[in-house]
Design a protein that fits this description.
Blueprint lengths: L3 E2 L3 E6 L2 E6 L9 H17 L5 E6 L4 E3 L4 H9 L5 H23 L4 E6 L2 E3 L1 H7 L3 E5 L3 E3 L13 H9 L1 H10 L3 E2 H6 L5 E3 L4 H12 L4 H11 L4 H15 L2 H11 L10
Helix pairs in contact: 1-3, 2-3, 2-11, 3-10, 4-5, 5-6
Amino acid sequence: MEPFEGKTISWGEHNGVIELSLHRGPCNEIGSETLEELESFAEVLRTSAGNMHTLIIHSVMPAGFCAGADLRELYRRAYQQPRTSGNSIAEVRNFLVRIHAVFNAIDDAPLVTVAAVHGVAFGGGFELALTADLIVADRTARFAFPELRLGLIPGFGGIPRLKRDLGNGIARDMLFTGRSINATKAQTADLVSQVVAEGEALRVAHALASQVGKFDLNAVRAAKKFIKPVPHAELLREIDIFCELFESPAVAAGLRRFVESNSPLPYLP
């Protein structure tokens, strides 16, 4: 695998471990540029992951892992450019289909994936973490689905994946309240496999990778396929519901409040 240094993400491989680094300020918001680079990574993952045993996803940004979708870009593209409602929805749907394809490729990759999380993992960032087989969180990590504040539901596959991993109880609580949970509560709920000291998540993720590398790759792949099926039908339904809701005036109002906010971190619940 050839190393890559992009504007929003980078990746490289060493001793069977792929490291995907997120580095778009302020907190790795996922917009069109990040999506394009993630699509390139997904293609590399499909063609080059055969001899790798672990993928580690982490952020180098101080604010956290990922704050989710780039809502300012979404607002500009949907409401500040001359276009019809139908074109806007088609563009939103196309973006969702593309991001789902990337997240499904990570979710279903034939290796063990570890998300090393610190700070904010909200919305689409939480959904990216949920594609991983294991989440290692440092004590600063916070997880949330704040989308209902905007009149939407999570759109990057979060609800089906959270239900798959934890069941309806925690999924409904996080969805309906929009409140965040810290690393300790996330571990109690079995969302997080390990809670570590601040700044230690990436080191511990590499230690996990070293353990995974001791096992037969075929056995690892068989175990993953058995224990972690991708909920494709529910993921497709999520896209439909998101697009239905996006046409609501409440969404335009919610996004407008977000982009007009003076807060340096307006995504914090």
